[in-house]
Amino acid sequence: MASEGRTKTGETILVVDDQEDNVELLRARLFARGYVVRIAMNGQQALDSVQEIAPDLILLDVMMPGMSGIEVVRRIKKDQNLPFIAVIMQTALDSTESRVEGLDAGADDYITKPINFAELEARVRSMLRIKRLQEELESRERELEEMNDRLRRVSQTDGLTGLDNRRYLEERLHEMFEHSLRLHEPLSVVMCDIDHFKSVNDTYGHLAGDAILRQFADLIKEQAREIDRVGRYGGEEFLIILPGTVLDAAVTFAGRVRDRIQAHEFVYEDERIRRTVSCGVAAWPHPLIASRDQLIRSADEALYVAKETGRDKVVRFDSDEFKTHCKPAELAEAGSPSS
After folding, report:
1. Peptide bond into 83 cis (omega under 30)
2. Start-to-end C-alpha separation, the chain
3. CA 23, CA 43: separation in Å to the nearest integer?
4. Does the chain have fewer CB atoms within 10 Å around its N or its C terminus?
5. What is the chain's pLDDT, residue by residue, as a tens digit (339 residues)?
């Protein structure tokens, strides 16, 4: 295989023909029009050349010994790893049947021998224009897909911590709860709240508070599994959804989070700040839980009890401590069936 140096157009045409005279004539004509010309003398050379450097257009002879041009274009068009390559087939068989066969195989255009070079140049320009339009369309589609991905991430993510935001968390919880109902698999949630967080903002400023929230988010993610959902539920409150997790295991998880935060020293500029965390834990299936809303409310009420009874602790929603401090009306509401 041979090729000419790069010219002013930069567009590459692969000429595939087993007749040297035809190749030389086509090479000279196309090179004179400013195209980069590559040569293949048979089907296999053509396929090898395409894999090496995908051309913008292939001028492909139909009748060749060994592998026909029809088979060459069929293989090229089936290769999903290749970009769009325009293919003009050249043939001495000026019949509808031969044209249909080539077009069915994936050819984009046809020209008959002997070649009229004015017609060939017009067809080449047309096919290259189509390729450029195709590339522009693909580029715009990629840009649109990337933009949609960014918008989706923005709509699902808390801007400060990078965790799931509340709306997205509630959507995932709805899906996971429905899944658990269908398969009767356990599902737990943990509500966490940073103790005395307001004093951080009052003492060190809101930038320090933001830094602690980001570090706190990272610490929770370290403890969570890949299948868990971790998000900022509001302010300094965080929600962790634990699919396939029974209540005892969720309490153990919350205990690890509490211990990790208690031992951690938050850093903001030259300040070293310590804080603790309170956690409320609830799980399904449980006689007191009949809906997703009750699951969240029970964890939130358990968190409230943890805050009211000294902070820096984990409270499960069905514990004696919870029942002692939760109002009877609240317990009845938590256990009532959903509407």
Report:
1. no
2. 76
3. 14
4. C
5. 444 444 445 799 999 998 888 889 999 989 988 899 999 999 999 999 999 989 999 999 988 888 988 899 999 999 989 999 999 988 876 666 666 777 888 888 888 888 888 998 999 999 999 989 988 998 899 999 999 988 888 889 999 999 999 999 999 999 999 999 999 999 999 999 999 999 999 999 999 999 999 999 999 999 999 999 999 999 999 999 999 999 999 999 999 999 999 999 999 998 899 999 999 999 999 988 989 999 999 999 999 999 999 999 999 998 888 888 875 444 444 443 332
Task: DSSP for 189-202, please give it.
Answer: EEEEEETTHHHHHH
Count CA atoms within 13 Å of residue 245 on its CB side.
Answer: 24
Alpha-carbon distance of 73 to 67, in angstroms, equals 10
Catalytic residue selected from 236, 237, 269, 271: 236
Tokens matching residue 129? 């224009």
DSSP 235-266: TTEEEEEEET--HHHHHHHHHHHHHHHHH--E
| Contact indicator for 121, 141 with CB cutoff of 8 Å | no
In this prediction the pTM is: 0.66
Number of Cβ atoms within 10 Å of the Cβ of 23:
20
Question: What would the two tokens of residue 306 be?
Answer: 């943890």
**Which regions of the chain does DSSP assign to beta strands (E)?**
12-16, 36-40, 57-61, 86-91, 109-112, 187-194, 229-234, 237-243, 266-268, 271-273, 277-284, 314-316
Convert 190-224 to b/e letters by CB count within 10 Å (16 or more is b): bbbbbbebeebeeebeeebbebbbebbbebbeebb
Asked if 308 is an active-site residue, the reply is no
Strands 12-16 and 57-61, by their bridges, are parallel
